[in-house]
Amino acid sequence: MSHGIEQPVPLGEGNSSIAACTISQPDETPPRYQLVNEDGEYDPDSLPDLDDEELLDLFEWMLLQEIVDERMVTLQRRGEMGTYASGRGQEASIVGSSYALREEDWLFPYGREAAAMLIQGMPLRDLMLYWRGVEDANMQKAHRVFPPAIAIGTHIPVGVGYAWGLGLGEEDAIAALFHGDGHPSTGEFQSGANFAGVMNAPALFYCQNNGYSISVPFDEGQTAAQTVAQKGMAWGIDGIRVDGNDVLAVYDAVSQAREHVADGNPTIVESVTYRLEAHTTNDDPSRYREADEVDWWEEREPISRFRTVLESEGILADGDEDAMRQELNQQFDEAKEAADGYESRGIEELFTYVYDELPPELERQLGEFERFLEGHPEAHDYIDHRPKG
Amino acid sequence: MTDANRTLVEAVNDGLHTAMAADERVIVYGEDVGDNGGVFRATDGLIEAFGDERVVDTPIAEISIVGSAVGLSMAGFRPVAEIQFSGFIPPVFNQLVSMASRIRWRTRGEHNAPMVVRAPYGGGVRALEHHSESLESAYAHVPGLQVVIPGTPYDTKGLLQSAIDDPDPVLFLEPKLHYRAGRQEVPDGQYSVPLGDAAVRRKGTDVTVISWGSMMPPTMEAVDSLEDRRDVDVEVIDVRTLSPLDRETIVESIKKTGKATVVHEGPKSGGFAAELVATLNERALMYLEAPIHRVTGFDVPIPMLGMEDYYLPNPPRIAAGIERTLAGEGGV
Ligand SMILES: Cc1ncc(C[n+]2csc(CCOP(=O)(O)OP(=O)(O)O)c2C)c(N)n1
Ligand SMILES: [Mg+2]
Questions:
Q1: Is-catalytic flag, A380?
Q2: A177: closest CA among A246, A223, A232?
Q3: Please, are residues A175 and A199 in contact by the beta-carbon 8 Å criterion?
Q4: Which class would CATH give B199-326?
Q5: What's the whole-model pTM score?
Q6: Which CATH fold topology does B3-187 show?
Q7: For chain B, is the Cβ count within 10 Å smaller at the N or the C terminus?
Q8: How high is the pLDDT of residue A388?
Q9: Nearest to A83 among B36, B128, B315 (CB)
């Protein structure tokens, strides 16, 4: 029926059934896009168009994510690293997605995606310095990586604005906003996603749904919705669900989503995965989840699944993986050495970069503090020896 | 119990247990407060004791955690909401300013919001970015919002009880650096420490040092070392509640000592020390014998863990500030 004039609200047909006029969430959980199943079986014709070298590359990045996670946790235990958020169990989700981004794309990380930052080109040394709490580590503009959004949701409106700007520019670039399954609960996320839809901002909302937000399970306490992907519907943007432990499916889904996004269609990709490690090095997951559940996922962890594919394709020979691991561990050692060699510029670091130019009062505070430290060596001792919480 | 039995975070926990047992209108909620017992274990054991209708895990939705407390409290409950770290209060500022603090005023007393928002605050625990802010002066600037910052385990439990019983909203900031730093006798059962009452921690005649929360232990340490080194008698005041502020105790102390140093962790400019100095200017100017010094954080964001110890005022810096006050040195 035509209502004759253009309407500010789409009216739809009149209908006497409340059921017909009710928009509900799906009765059944929508499927996950999957190319390689949990047993490592797949249809060779459906695999994404990647050559052997690229497939090995994906595998190597996944191994690096695993090695970085294990070794960072060890360093933290030894007091050589701050709090760290491991991505163990999410290697396919982290690597498959970021590998699908193009050279010109920008990454807005949240914190649980080390390899994504490294794939963008951020040096491993800087990643270590970041988790040691060094601001210099955030200087990653050349690699198109923004500082991790530790305050949940804060990067979403910012990333949407950046994407909006990219869309207005010449380049065909997108902004990839990485986040977890708890993020869509924030005001920032919801208003940002809506905004992106209105502005046709080329923003990719990449959600690693790893089942938990610290202790809170996704389906009990985070949201009454069945999926994150469906949330896009409310804002008029698309949502795709993908098996986050199948690296090829993740790669393929994000590659396609990326093209859609670049055309001005913000899109959610929900990667369904599982965090095998603690939330961070401060967390004790035995307080909120059963070992059975962790074991179930350990058996379905993504590196083994992809290894099966590479072996049956004849790409990964005996001994190849060992050699890769050795090489990656060496990379880690070298980065660690470089990070250990980092020299702070001292207290000046606190004061520079608050503004373009140091205002007189800040200059005064800096000078006063410098003189104080010169005159009070016991203050340095205090700082060096204070028990760290 | 008679010996030093509880840490500051255990005092929070005991205070919540006690208040929930005494009043079934008290509801505790926030992120990870249930099975996990809170990321600092402040809510440990509550869900087992009071069930998941009164101890509720929420989505990551700070705006609604605080906004819903206004609603729940108007509906007859006594919500005690947790914000996991004070660094996540900024998105909630709107609910605090536009709703919580004004609901009594807007409705001419018909509604009120007897709610408590608890949050660990301050630096020094090697936390991640956005986990270490001390923005209490911004919150204390909001009319209608009360801001309470305990500095000892005993006060923590007693002030928490008063906050829960109070008919108006309270932001309750807990110095997380000292959550487990020491123990003090904290009685079992209910007791309260009134809001709006500063505590004189140490009596003295030469100078008054005023501080609160996270800066109390380093202030006491600085005063100890100063008194060891030279013949000086220092009075120390723990403000405990920035709003309502106990101006009387502070003014009376300065009338006696004639000198004051204010210590706080947040940035200097516009910090709460400025309010204290202005108060003394208004009410005790003629008693002042020396310029009042401020020992505070710098006017910069608190850095990540690599440099945070340089940002935080420490006992040597505090002691040097007190010495300058004693010397009657002007300037900054
Ligand atoms: C605004 C805000 N609230 C709370 C926190 C504390 N916090 C850090 S991570 C986290 C859970 C995040 O869960 P999710 O989005 O699922 O990501 P995951 O950590 O599981 O990868 C919480 C509550 C925070 N960093 N920021
Ligand atoms: Mg999660």
A1: no
A2: A232
A3: no
A4: alpha beta
A5: 0.97
A6: Rossmann fold (3.40.50)
A7: N
A8: 60
A9: B128
